[in-house]
Design a protein that fits this description.
Low-confidence stretches: none
Distance between the termini: 9 Å
Order of helices and strands: H
Strand content: under 5%
Helix content: 25-40%
Structural class: mainly alpha
Largest sheet: none
Radius of gyration: 8 Å
Shape: elongated
């Protein structure tokens, strides 16, 4: 599940699920 990695990136920035400040890196998505 690559979505798991994206979740880590989001929390890494301390952003919420609906925050547009998070950056989704091309880890596997």
């Amino acid at each position: 599940m690559d979505a798991d990695k994206n979740w880590i990136v989001k929390t890494s920035f301390g952003s919420t699920w609906g925050d547009s400040g998070y950056i989704t890196l091309p880890l596997g998505n």
